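TODO from last week: model DUF2384 domain-containing protein.
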Amino acid sequence: MIAADNRPDGRIDPKGVDAGKAMEGFFAIMALWGASREEARRILGEPAERTFQRWRAGEVAAISRDTLSRVGYVAGIFKGLQIVYGDAAQADEWVRRPNRALGGQTPLERMAAGEIVDLAAVRQYVDALRAPWS
């Protein structure tokens, strides 16, 4: 779980975040979604290859605010899908189905486009889906 101090401006302060747990959760979600290694790397903002390998191996000292935001978007998308779909397998399969609202891309393809706004777009879409259950 990501535990961070909230700032007055609404942003997350990465101090106090358990970066190892954040990355462990991220890679667990990527495995459930069947994301390729390259998709996972692009979702994280294309960190250096060596850094990515260390993170995958569980060697995480600290992560940037950008990386924390990306992991947070992924966690929010995952949680939202678990709320929308009563079946975990259906929720996890959703990211691999083409979606007209995303220009025919799968949500995973959109998230892996590399920009944080792509993650935000998928999160916004999932939040709209779950609105009736909120």
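Done. The chain has seven helices and two strands.
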